[in-house]
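User: Structure tokens for this complex, please. No commentary.
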Amino acid sequence: MRQSGIYAIASKDIVFESFDGEAVVLDLTTGKYFGFSDSGSRLWDALSSGVPASELVGAATGIGALDAAAIDGFVSQLLEFGLLAAVTDGVARPVSSEFLAQLAAAREPLKVDIHDDLADLIVVDPIHEVEEPLGWPAVKQAN
Amino acid sequence: MPVYNRERYVVSALRSLVRQRDAADLDIIVIDDGSTDGSAEAVRSMMRGNPCIRLFQQSNMGVPRARNAGLRQLPPDAEFVSFLDSDDISPDGRFKKDLARFRANPGLELTYSLMTLVERIDDERLEPAVDSPTMTLRGISLSAAVFSRGLVDRTGQFDEDFEQAEDTDYLLRVFEAGPNYELLDAVALYYRRHAGNVTKEHSGRVRNHLRAIHKSMRRRKADPSRREVQGIFELKSPADWRML
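Assistant:
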């Protein structure tokens, strides 16, 4: 079952931040960005920091307990979008009481939305790290 | 034009504007944000003979507050607003092209043009140096825009919570609100890349950019009439070229 696993951020090109408890994730290679519902933000924080998906089954949200199918679907999306990758030798992080309290306050179902309206902008500028020795603009033809 | 310690570049930036004074009745508002170098004197040297340049000085408060200070100095009869950073160059003829579009389309509120990122600028000709690498795109830049005064008033101030990416936030707010705009395929900015670019510090840049995106998603969630900024930003260089 997929949700039993431990996951990690898929690559260094996946960057993310939380603002007021809401996660925003950006894929620097595709320029797509991802927004989460409140419960989705909580699960992103947990999964991306090594909490096994299996530990989250049955956890309470403000609108009911998370069942295995919902978590499985959510994890599948994160894998499909290339935001998380399964790790085989990862160290499982325990679920914290703070996480459980925040999740219990969530009022929206698990959801992640994908947006590509800023894709070209994000791929080129302004947030890529410029490798100084390469000079600039440092571009290559994609394969 | 906000200025902070740009004595090396600010005269070129101002020259690139005043050479276009035949296109419009220019009012160039310069906000010196507490420079400690010779920026203010460099601006004053340009003011001699160019009464369209007005200089205001304040203690250092950062770019968003400097931009807001500039907005507060807009004269009541200003019809159009644009921005130029103190290290960049406004290509000759840029305002003439945009203002012609506003004349042709009376409901127009915004023109949004291309920008060329330039490694080396010839400060005599105010053009990219012949051997300089360049990249042209429709990116995030306040200088790519000419705003109608009504749109500027409706959009409001720059968000002073941002240390950087206040321009991204401002433009997302503008485009989400669905203004009547035209995308022009002309270059409206030579963006000078140099060792002192404030946008080069990486971790803060990512965080501020993500903050702008987060605020945009939040606004759209709260108000479904606001739209995604689809089809505005694009890489004009061939699509299969990517940053390394």
